[in-house]
């Protein structure tokens, strides 16, 4: 087995090189096991071992507090198997700790590899193997990269000789670091006046030593609205993989963005300037997540002026009093002692728990629910996602009337507290993957400003009555309707359904006129549709076919499931070639049908 250190300055491209190797198809086919672990400055053998087991789908909650058990299991998982493991951004140079980890790795099969990216030569020397040194780019390569990101991607494309002289000088000032070159070039992509480029070239920030000047210059060139959005992201820890949707919802709750569409544009703009990087799917089981480079994260912290912080890094009560947006790492002890100092954060607007340790449904102390949270009356955004909460105080939200964003997803709640209906300012309510939640509140119609409701993967939940009365509701994700025929009209009034939609008990629909009221062809954002019948044999096969005919979805549908259909023939639309995006069709328990539609 071999360790391959990749050494170089921050922002020079070590992780990019490792990702190129890790994601190569030949490499993937060559190794039986693969895992990518972000180590960072704080070396934690427990978290490394746990992360590897999770990557190999071998993690067991029974071992969650015992390092020895974790490492024994890790040895068993690696024994005799050819694996590739990447330890990204390693700083620890303690040989004893490295040797303990190495003794686990050598249990692997012949040809196994460990890739380690690091800024420190001493870390590479500790591994006793030949290192790959990633050097800075040459002047010519720097200018080529800078030019590609600042001038060549413009619309319409054209030559800009008048800008090239200043551009070449700025490229040289980035000292051959790709991260700096891309970030600064991206900030100049929309600037066409020579004076604008010259102002950046002559900026005093080039003399700064505390962080890459190019990154702060890139920040300075952002429009005001993007500066605020970027600085907000200082609440995320280094190497944390965050969801685009969550960031946008938090921006909206904080008043930085008005609409999802605008938030999406802002996020993409920051990504185009290399401030956000997409996490490769092969190294992130969920996929579709983003990360900030360590140095970009540092610049976000500077830009936020201590208004956006991580609780663990707050030093002194003055920081707690000054902070407006805060995240913290979820623990296993109920988090009361950790959150107790928040009594001094009267102006706190955002509270976001982050599951850095990969805990499964950690407990949240009742004292947090009863004593701490109700005191945070300025909160606009609150997440309790991932906690093993079964029950919440019924009056929890009475004093939190300014809340705009509430995330209770992946909790164990069986019932929502009545006081949620007093949140007149609430705009986003996330209840996805709440497996034990069976119903929403009857008084939901009081949430007059609710725009976004996510109930996806909440398998037991049925849609409440009169949800269509929520006139501000723009997005419903993962809706499930159990029908009496009278509900078809209400379903028709909900035009902003997104993601998956399930319609159950369709035997209760009397005729095609009722089915037509659902207005299924207008629901262009529904990508996955499930239509289910149950009960006895139909009285009239033609009526059943007419009903299904009127339930034809929009052509944007990607997955369609029909179960228990009681007609003898499928309607013609099922074989219509206009469904160009349809990737999966499931027909089950359609016992009366004597022929399949002409597919393909």
UniProtKB/TrEMBL annotation:
- Look up the domain of life of the source: Eukaryota
Keyword flag Coiled coil: yes
| All residue ranges annotated as the R13L1/DRL21-like LRR repeat region domain in the record | 488-600
Q: Where in the cell is it found?
A: Membrane
InterPro entries found in the cross-reference section = Apaf_helical (IPR042197), Disease_R_plants (IPR044974), Leu-rich_rpt (IPR001611), LRR_dom_sf (IPR032675), LRR_R13L1-DRL21 (IPR056789), NB-ARC (IPR002182), P-loop_NTPase (IPR027417), WHD_DRP (IPR058922)
Please report the stretch or stretches of sequence annotated as the NB-ARC domain: 4-154
Q: Which residues form the Disease resistance protein winged helix domain?
A: 235-298
Q: How does it sit in the membrane?
A: Peripheral membrane protein
Report whether Transmembrane shows up as a keyword of the record: no
GO molecular function annotations of the record: ADP binding; ATP binding
| PANTHER family tied to this protein | DISEASE RESISTANCE PROTEIN RP, OS11G0481150 PROTEIN
Listed name of the protein: Uncharacterized protein
The organism encoding this protein is: Capsicum annuum (Capsicum pepper)
């Amino acid at each position: 087995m071999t360790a391959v250190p990749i050494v170089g300055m921050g922002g020079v491209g070590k992780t990019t090189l490792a990702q190129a190797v890790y994601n190569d198809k030949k490499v993937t086919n060559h190794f039986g096991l693969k895992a990518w672990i972000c180590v960072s400055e704080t070396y934690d053998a427990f978290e490394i071992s746990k992360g590897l087991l999770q990557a190999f789908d071998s993690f067991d909650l029974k071992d969650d507090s015992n390092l020895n058990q974790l490492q024994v299991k890790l040895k068993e998982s690696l024994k005799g198997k050819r694996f590739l493991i990447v330890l990204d951004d390693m700083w620890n140079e303690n040989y004893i700790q490295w040797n303990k980890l190495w003794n686990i790795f050598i249990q692997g099969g012949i040809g196994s590899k460990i890739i380690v990216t690091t800024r420190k030569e001493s870390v590479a020397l500790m591994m006793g193997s030949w290192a790959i040194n990633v050097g800075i780019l040459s002047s010519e390569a720097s200018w080529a990269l800078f030019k590609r990101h600042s001038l060549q991607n413009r619309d319409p494309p054209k030559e800009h000789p008048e800008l090239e002289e200043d551009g070449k000088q700025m490229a040289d000032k980035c000292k051959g670091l790709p991260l700096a070159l891309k970030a600064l070039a991206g900030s100049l992509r929309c600037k066409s006046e020579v004076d604008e480029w010259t102002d950046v070239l002559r900026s005093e920030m080039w003399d700064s030593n505390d962080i890459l000047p190019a990154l702060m210059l890139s920040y300075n060139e952002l429009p005001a609205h993007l500066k605020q959005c970027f600085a907000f992201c200082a609440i995320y820890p280094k190497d944390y993989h965050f969801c685009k949707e969550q960031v946008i919802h938090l921006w909206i709750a904080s008043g930085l963005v008005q609409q999802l569409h605008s938030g999406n544009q802002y996020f993409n703009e920051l990504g185009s300037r290399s401030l956000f990087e997409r996490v490769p799917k092969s190294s992130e089981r969920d996929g579709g997540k983003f990360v900030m480079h360590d140095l970009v994260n540092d610049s976000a912290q500077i830009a936020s002026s201590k208004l956006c912080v991580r609780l663990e890094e707050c030093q002194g009560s003055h920081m707690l009093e000054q902070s407006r947006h805060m995240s913290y790492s979820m623990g296993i002890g109920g988090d009361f002692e950790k959150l107790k100092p928040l009594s001094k954060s009267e102006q706190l607007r955002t509270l976001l728990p982050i599951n850095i340790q990969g805990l499964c449904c950690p407990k949240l102390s009742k004292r947090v629910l009863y004593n701490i949270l109700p005191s945070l009356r300025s909160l606009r955004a609150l997440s309790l996602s991932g906690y093993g909460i079964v029950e919440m105080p019924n009056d929890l939200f009475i004093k939190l009337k300014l809340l705009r964003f509430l995330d209770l997803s992946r909790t164990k709640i069986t019932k929502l507290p009545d006081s949620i209906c007093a949140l007149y300012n609430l705009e986003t309510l996330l209840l996805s993957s709440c497996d034990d939640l069976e119903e929403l509140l009857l008084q939901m119609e009081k949430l007059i400003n609710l725009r976004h409701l996510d109930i996806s993967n909440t398998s037991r939940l049925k849609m409440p009555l009169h949800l269509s009365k929520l006139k501000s509701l723009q997005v419903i994700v993962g809706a499930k309707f159990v029908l009496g025929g009278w509900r078809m009209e209400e379903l028709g009034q909900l035009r902003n359904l997104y993601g998956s939609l399930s319609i159950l008990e369709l035997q209760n629909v009397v005729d095609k006129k009722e089915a037509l009221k659902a207005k299924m062809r207008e629901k262009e954002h529904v990508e996955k549709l499930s239509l289910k019948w149950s009960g006895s044999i139909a009285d009239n096969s033609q009526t059943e076919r007419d009903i299904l005919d009127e339930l034809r979805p929009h052509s944007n549908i990607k997955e369609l499931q029909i179960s228990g259909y009681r007609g003898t023939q499928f309607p013609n639309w099922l074989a219509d070639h206009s469904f160009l995006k349809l990737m999966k069709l499931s027909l089950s328990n359609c016992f009366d049908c004597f022929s399949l539609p002409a597919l393909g």
